[in-house]
Amino acid sequence: MKKSIILFLFSMLLLMLIPMHTHAASHQTKIILDGQELVLPNDVEVVNVRSNIMIPIRVVAENLKFNVKWNQKTQNVNIEQASTAISLTVGKDQATVQNNTVQLNIAPQMIKNTVVVPLRFVSEEMGLRVGWNNKDKIVTLTSNNGSQPASPSHGNDAATNLVHDITYANNQLVVSLDREVAPVISTLKNPERIIVDFPSTNFGNMGQVPSGGSMGRLDVNEFPSVTDIRYSLFKNDPPQVRIVIELNNISSVNYTQQTIAGKFILDLSMANEPAPAPATPVNSGKKIVVIDPGHGGSDPGTISYTKQPEKHFALALGLKVQALLENEPDIELMMTRETDVYPTRPERVKLANDLNADVFVSIHGNSVPAAPQISGTETYYYQRESSKALATLIHKNLIDALGFNDRGVKNGNYQVIRETTMSAVLLEIGFLSNQIEEEAMMSETNLNKAAQAIVDGIKEYLKL
Ligand SMILES: [Zn+2]
Q1: For domain 161-267, is the CATH number 3.30.470.10?
Q2: How far, in Å, is the centroid of ligand 1 from the Cα of 136?
Q3: pLDDT tens across 237-260, in order?
Q4: CA of 353 to the centre of ligand 1 (A)
């Protein structure tokens, strides 16, 4: 294992030492759209950035008969077709789709004069079904009805469902899907196995996707009760994804299952592991609140009117909320960060989920540099009614306390509120790109007011 990592690093080093021009023509990635290979301009290619497959957006959009406009000055791409309008900016991990802000797991990038966007964005926001064959480096894209341009789909059609991620931790198998699906679960003996079949489901953008009968595996070294977790495309037409969990040394297989916000969760903690003796009572009856000051460290967030990074605002306000909540006898508080560091979004999500927190609040400042007149407070939740209730209470308190323009409580597809499993909200306190609002937001008085409003909203929600 170690040896292969060293070998890998060594070959990466070699690759970096080879002059650029020799590797360009070696293996051109193909993009197949509705069965037809797209002609890629000479120096345009599909790239892999931190396990995200990124594709040149212009080539794809133009072939779908979208109208593509590039603004060199603002580094902005506008994509329009009939009623669909998408706006992306290089280096910015938020896009606009039909006037809604959409969070990307990786910002669009400029590579060799071409803007590339994550494949997942194309599937989620342009309604294409996507596939990635890592071995042959082929991206397959399928629009909803052949040659017709696709319209954004949010997963209500009968198209193939897609698996975006499979993880195993804390005795839980978590499968992230485009939309909820009821898998067929069966068990087998000798060895004990749990077989989870997802009907009409294929692999989406998850980096290494098994194809052609090959298998993917999760690393289960840390989990003594599990010997193997493997996944494959079990059937082709219609596609069916199968996950097999092989268990170690147990007399009977027990599990519970649930589906939360597009995630299928198979929980094996019931009987497969000897129950640990509780050393200290973990649940003191207190409510667990996680406060998440957005961005931090290497991730500045947006840049304000006076060129201050959003991360400083988020932390300043977060620490004030912390100071207030620490005095609450019925609340157990956890911060995702207390200094200028960058926990990744999956790390923030994991912290809250592992704690089994009751409330998750992510703090941000908004920005539209191109329209500095825009101002006001927005509060986001993702789908769950419990999150919406929390969002409504905090939002009302913020509007009352700060008196900013009320831009409403909205459903928003942000990772930290989508993938957390408790009541979770993302606060856009105000617009840092607005000169007057930035000054108001950064004032000591308003930071204190906002912190108190957040605390009041949380306490009202928790009925404390
Ligand atoms: Zn932010």
Answers
A1: no
A2: 37
A3: 778 888 988 887 665 667 777 777
A4: 21
For the domain made up of 287-462, the CATH class stated in words is: alpha beta
The edge-to-edge listing of strands for the beta sheet with 109-111 is: 47-49, 52-56, 114-118, 109-111
- In the chain, where the domains are located: 26-142, 161-267, 287-462
Kindly report the number of other CB atoms within 10 A of residue 191's CB atom.
12
Instruction: State the sign of the Cα–Cα–Cα–Cα dihedral 95, 206, 177, 287.
Output: negative
Distance, CA 224 to ligand 1 centroid (Å)?
A: 39
CA–centroid distance, 379 to ligand 1, in Å, is: 12
CA 135 – ligand 1 centroid, Å: 36
Question: b/e per residue, 392-428, with b = 16+ CB within 10 A?
Answer: bbbbbbbbebbebbebebbebbbbbbbbbbbbbbbbb
Look at the block and give the residue holding tokens 């068990």: 187
pLDDT digits (tens, 9 = 90+) for 384-398: 999 999 999 999 999
Q: How far is the CA of 104 from the centre of ligand 1 (A)?
A: 12
